Amino acid sequence: MTSQFPNPVRTPHKGRVLAAATLLVSIALTGCNDHAAQTAPRTTLVRTTTVQPRKRQAAITLTGEVQARFRADLSFRVNGRVVARVVDIGAHVSKGDVLARLDPAEQQADVDAATAAVASAEAQLRVAKATFERQNALIASGFTTRTVYDQAREGLRTAEGVLEAAKAQLGTSRDALGYTVLRAESNGVITARNLEVGQVVPAAQPVFSLAQDGERDAVFEVYESLFLGQTDSRRVTLALVSDPSVTATGEVREISPVIDAKSSTIRVKVSIDNPPAAMTLGGAIVGTVKAKPQNEIAVPWSALMAAGRKPAVWTVDPKTQTASLKPVTVGAYEAGQVLIKAGLEPGERIVIDGGKLLSVGQSVTEVGDRS
Fold first, then answer.
1. Is a pLDDT exceeding 80 seen at residue 274?
2. Mind listing the pLDDT tens digit for each residue in 25-64?
């Protein structure tokens, strides 16, 4: 006889249920352990050093040129065509030496005309003088009128004036003839030339530049930023670029009050004390001036980081061994190091290697040289 009750529902075995529960708990615990491992603070190995200020005296070195203290641009005083050029650039001349000549034909013609005018005026003066002497004798005897006498006297004065004017014109013509020869006005060296034989030059156009013998200057083109610092003195040490053994000293005597619009530099002239003979005009010269000593902190390039757009360095707190980013003010950049003007205190420890992997508040382990 068949049973009327349904078949009983089969349930999992208790062992299988326990195993499944154990597996779930194990997975959960494993996930928690992984999360805890990931959030555990990590320590970064860095190399640090202790910063100390040092006394630093910077030196500014620039290249300039030896120039004459006094220079003159020479030119003809009359127009004309150049028929001779006696000197060239670099020639040393003495006062009165002939430098160039113009064709004197026109000026010579003026001298001849002025000479003839003087001769004519002298003849007129002789006639006027004789006429006046005759009238002077006649008026004393009463044989002439006062009017005729006055006319003779006035004619004499006019003739004398004409002669003086003719002589003055002759002198001017002779001077113009002399101006066709260009001479050196002092001892010196020709530094520039702007004429050739056959060229027609107008009056007052510079054709030679003469650097006068005597005092010499070292001339430098200096960027205005260099004037922001304070120098130790106005004394400058000088040396030739071609031969550093040739040295001299000088003193700043002139600083241009304006900035050159093309080069954005300021011209500085340094007087050379007893310049050696080797320091010739146009020679390249090196000038060095020392700045006032300053206390600055030097750090390696590898220590310099950035906080936004400002320079910064990583510092390490010796108590907590954590890193913090500290903004600094850079005084100068040099080969292999950066000079910090403000932002660091003596005795602070900074990171000089490994700073690229740090974050604010991160724990660090210092290795290597702890100078």
1. yes
2. 444 444 444 444 444 456 788 888 888 887 776 678 899 9
Burial of residue 182, with CB atoms counted within 10 A of its CB: 0-12 exposed, 13-18 middle, 19 or more buried: buried
| Distance, CA of 92 to CA of 95 (rounded, Å) | 10
Q: For 137-165, how does the pLDDT look when each residue is reduced to its tens digit (9 = 90+)?
A: 998 888 889 999 999 999 999 999 999 99
Structure tokens at 328: 């600094």
Asked if 52 contacts 297 with a C-beta cutoff of 8 angstroms, the reply is yes
- CA-based Rg of the chain, rounded to a whole angstrom? 49
Q: How many CB atoms lie within 10 A of CB 240?
A: 19
Alpha carbon 76 to its chain centroid, in Å, reads 33
Cα dihedral 73, 77, 83, 84 in deg (nearest 10): -40
